[in-house]
Structures are given as structure tokens and as C-alpha cells.
Write a structure and sequence with these properties.
410 residues, seven-stranded mixed sheet, alpha/beta, globular, Aspartate Aminotransferase, domain 2, 17 strands
Length: 410
Amino acid sequence: MSSTREIADLYAKYVMNTYAQKVALVKGQGTVVSGADGNRYIDFTSGIAVQNVGHAHPKVVQAVAEQMATLNHCSNLFYNEKQALLAKKLVEISDLDVGTKCFFCNSGAEANEAMIKLARLWGHLGGKGDDNGGYVEIVTMMNSFHGRTLATLTATGQAKVQDGFDPLPVGFAYADFNDIESVKAAINDSTVAVMLECIQGEGGVIPADTKFMKALRALCDEREILLLCDEVQCGMGRTGDWFAWQSTGVKPDAFSLAKAIASGVPMGAVVASSKLADVFTPGRHASTFGGNPLACAAALATIGVIESENLLERAADAGDAIMSGLGKIADAHPGLVKAIRGQGLMIGLALDPGKIDAGRVVDAARDIGLLVCKAGGNAIRILPPLNVTDDEIDDGLDILADAIDEVAGA
């Protein structure tokens, strides 16, 4: 097996430099991953909220192996039973309304792109009851993140993500997150939808207020526009509900999924209520790989594990334990911690940028044996698998506390 240095040299020579990697991972089991040089790490990133049932869960491994040996791909020119069964399951656990349907693709950006196209087509077809159509503009939130395609990076409310890629597509406006008056001000006569994450992940793990979500739903109903939720990072059980919007008591008209839906097999999806379910027709949108038998088998197995192992309840309980532990870390480091926020196992530890750098803490934790990642606003993002054990939580928090001690004392 190659060393980390040898792998890094191959990257430097042959792979575009879009990430700043430090470790070469070669194996994972549950919440623990191993590096090329033999080091072991507690993984509180889950591949950025992908491995919600842990690395190499045996039921997912078995489902993928069996499907690979049977029929891994057939394109969407043909029926595929696994895709139909997965769509049925997503419709059932989302419980949007009678007539809800799904579209499948390969990533979160593609899912959000499809949701944007769906909303615009609905607007062009006169979805607001006006035969003239022409409703195309989508309001998104400042500090949001929706992907790296041209449309989704334009939807992303962060200038640093958009910088250097102009001219950007038109048809997007921005409002302040958790500020209903700002959203009202951003809506105009061409607005077709409001799109947001119920928990801003890249933006610093910032949850939407329930009061804001209810007001947003009422506003969208009043203006006859769509409410779209990006569940790419916060969905699939991470927050203690199947989808983060469920805890607000507000139903969107459509929502996107990816990341954890198929435990690392690339997949994205849009789940659309009856209002939007039949807007796409043959030739309007498509995906060669989207929802192929392999990815759907992985997704069905993933959902089965979450159900059979009661991982929604576990995510809520484990999240409470981590929040409590982070509170003790904050008490032991007065002035360093600005906020502890999140829901379930999507947690952010916001640090005072004038006193300590979150990136340095992430590096120090990795060197001791814990993988966490940085988020916007100088926050540490904590995203363990939903089946993380109590001992792993304790060990991870101990390492994080030691890392903060090390950086603060440097």
C-alpha cells in the first residue's frame, strides 16, 4: 500500500487542486477510519454528512454487492424496480401529500439544479394561475450553500463561492436568514419560489427558527409561490427526524436530498408534492445515472438500517450528549466559545475568531485522532454517524477538548 506521501505526490501530479487534503484514508468501519500510514481516527465528519449509518455497514455492503452482481445500471430508458421502491419509500417517510413523486440524479448540486428547473418550469407554465407564466426568480438566503454548478453557486448566498465565475445566471435574489421582513422585501412580481436550508451547514450550522419557517410558509401561500427546502446535508435522519423541515411543522412544496441517501454511492433526489409532481414530462429533464439499480439498492438498505436500528431516536439522544459535552468544554474555556448550535447530530461549535482559529483546532484534533471539519463563521462542524456509540462520543469530545487546549495555549 502506498504511503500518504506517495499518494499526495500522485495527487500533486495528476489531480486538480480543489481540496487541501492532509490525510489519505484507506479503510472505514462504523465511526472509525484508518489512514495509509496506519493511524486511526474517530470520524465526526461522516464524509461530510454522508455516512449516516457508519462506514461499511454490513447491510449496505451486502445490498450493493448483490445488486452489482445482478444489474448495476440500465439507464432510465427502462423501468427499474429498485427506483420505484425507493421513490415509494421516500414518499411515505416524507408524507408531503397524496400525489407526491420523486426525481433521481447523482448529487446534491444536481438535485438542487433539478428543483430550480422544476420551479421555473412551473412558473413558466402559469403555476400561479396566470396563463402568461413568466415567474422565474428564486429567493435564497444569505450565507446559504446549494452547490457548485453555475445555477446552484448563484443560488448560494456567499460571494466567495461565486467569485471568478461570472457572468452568473440571472433569476436569483437574496434575503437574510431567519428574517421574514427581509424575505418579503426580496419577493417581487417575478418571484416563483423561496429556497433555503432548514439548517445552514456550510454557513456555520445555523438552524432556521420555527417561527420563521411558519411565517415563510404563510408568506409563500399568500403570494402563491413555492417553498423549496435543501435537505442535502441535514436530511436522512441527521437531525433526529427524517428531514429537518419535519421538526418545524412546516411542509415544503419540494425538497432535495443527496449525501447520506445512499451511504456514499453517489445519488441525489427531489421529492415534490402533488403541486409539482407532474410538471416534468419526457424530454424536460433527465439523468443517465440517476436512480440506477445500484444506487437505489444502497439507498433502500440505508433507510432500512435507519429504521431497524432506531437511528432517528439515536441521533436525537447522541446529539443531546454531544451538546452537553460541548457545554462542559465551553465552561472550561471561558470566552473561547461563542455558541453551540444545531439539531440532532448536525452540530456547530462557534469559536471566537479573535481568540482562536477553528481551522487550527480542526488540524490539531486530526493529529490527535479525531476528524471534524470547519464551517463558516469560525465554527467547528460535528457530524458523527447516527449510530455513534457513547464511548466514541466521550473519546471524541476528550480529543476535541485537548485540541482546543493545544491551540489556545500555543
